[in-house]
Amino acid sequence: MKIKGKVWKYGDDINTDVLFPGKYTYTVTDSKEMAKIALEDLDPEFAKNIQKGDVIVGGTNFGCGSSREQAASCLLYAGVGAVIAKTFARIFFRNCINFGLPALTSAEAVDALEHGESIEIDTEKGEIRCKAGVFSFPPLPKEIVGIFDSGGLIPYTKKQLGLE
User: What is the pTM of this model?
Assistant: First the structure.
């Protein structure tokens, strides 16, 4: 999978309440509405200006906080192509995989990337290309790539079981 877009860079400990404000947890369920409120409290310009394929870059412990799925799904619905961080909170990382949103770990790329710059990611080669150079991330298992290519865990599972 190849992803091209611009970088939206944030810091450490970006929690699930910042990604999808908790006040909407039980009231906003429509994917288009979820996209409109992604990162509302952290960056009010994000949902208005994100373009399909743009990449969120965070520091350590990205996605910490509650286990709510909306933190990952609202980013996908907004058009985010991938999330790159130094480290991820375990449940957020798993939710990204479940929804088919690549969550990639590369501390070196995080340090080199700048907000607003262009980025290219090749998930099969494990490469992040930006103006500072080419950075690697651990190769993804073929099953995870299959989940991303299928658009999430449910479509992938249906495909594997012949239920498409």
Answer: 0.95
What is the per-residue pLDDT across 6-49, written as a single tens digit (0 to 9) for each? Answer: 999 999 999 999 999 999 999 999 999 999 999 999 999 999 99
> What CATH number corresponds to the domain at position 54?
3.20.19.10
What ranges make up the beta strands (E) of the chain? 2-9, 55-58, 82-85, 103-105, 118-122, 127-130, 133-136
Residue 138 has pLDDT above 90, yes or no: no
Query: 62: which strand partners?
Result: 88
What is the average pLDDT score of the chain? 95
Amino acid at 66: S
Integer Cα distance of 94 and 152 in angstroms: 11
Longest Cα–Cα distance in the chain: 44
Say yes or no to pLDDT of 164 above 80: no
Name the residue range of residue 27's domain.
Answer: 2-160
Helix (H, G, I), strand (E, B) or coil at 143: helix
Give me 15's structure tokens: 């929690």
Three-state secondary-structure class, residue 116: coil
Which of 85, 83, 119 is CA-nearest to residue 5? 119
Domain count, the chain: 1
DSSP assignment letter at 15:
B
